[in-house]
Amino acid sequence: xxxxxxxxxxxxxxxxxxxxxxxxxxxxxxxxxxxxxxxxxxxxxxxxxxxxxxxxxxxxxxxxxxxxxxxxxxxxxxxxxxxxxxxxxxxxxxxxxxxxxxxxxxxxxxxxxxxxxxxxxxxxxxxxxxxxxxxxxxxxxxxxxxxxxxxxxxxxxxxxxxxxxxxxxxxxxxxxxxxxxxxxxxxxxxxxxxxxxxxxxxxxxxxxxxxxxxxxxxxxxxxxxxxxxxxxxxxxxxxxxxxxxxxxxxxxxxxxxxxxxxxxxxxxxxxxxxxxxxxxxxxxxxxxxxxxxxxxxxxxxxxxxxxxxxxxxxxxxxxxxxxxxxxxxxxxxxxxxxxxxxxxxx
Length: 346
Fold this sequence. Notes:
Number of strands: 7
CATH class of the largest domain: Mainly Alpha
Oligomer: single chain
Radius of gyration: 28 Å
Helix content: 40-55%
Strand content: 5-15%
Mean pLDDT: 86
Structural class: alpha/beta
Order of helices and strands: EEEHEHEHHHHHHHHHHHHEEH
Low-confidence stretches: 339-346
CATH architecture of the largest domain: Orthogonal Bundle
Strand order of the largest sheet: 3-2-1-4-5
Number of helices: 15
């Protein structure tokens, strides 16, 4: 006889129900907090029943299900984490009644009527790589927003900076450090040339004598949109410091994720594909995890969200629609340049 512990997860708390395959309620639905005391009390109640075959089923709810998932995995339970959209379709009813207790019952019925794939916890190396990948994407997105604001303020405070530090060099460590210290044209005009030269010399700039002369000449002839005492000027200095800090943190993350990626089985195979460097390879592995968890190429393609959407109406069928975009958005972002056929499950 099978038994299932159905858990309806919420933020910081959950509703739990233990029921057998014949419909006998072994533990009435009740609410627990995500604390060690409540988890331990629940485990003790389960152990007192002396049941052999107990599984745990819950919905994937972002980060909120992670504590209870971890607890039951560490206590050697079979854990099934299902997509919330899938369970939502099963919960539909005519009365549109929804309570936490009914959700637990629906999850238990779904477990007994559907063949689910047991959740297998990934190796720590994949979990750590995934955490680094998500941190990288968060900082990168934040950095892009800051850079857009930064370029606007540069134009207001000293537009000639874009002629001095051309293209992407305006985001270099040297440019950011210099603009942080001298965010306005008038500040440079009132600074001695030897002080400017000393800054470039300390930072190891090759043309440390000539560059400050050019900057000084631009600054004297510049007429910015704001004064040096305007809050926009101090905001530019602050933004330059923040971008410099975030870029250094991003470089540290890149080093860490590549270091871990080189230890995985498929690093060399993926990295050997033309156009994919070590960092992109590591990001792909971080999001895919162990590729053996996919049964075939179709599952992997769907996980990436690169499978075509299909629309049929009567005799008309379109099998070449746009990609579904229903999978992992971070993996899809890094996979557009990759021919998915190179991935093989071994």
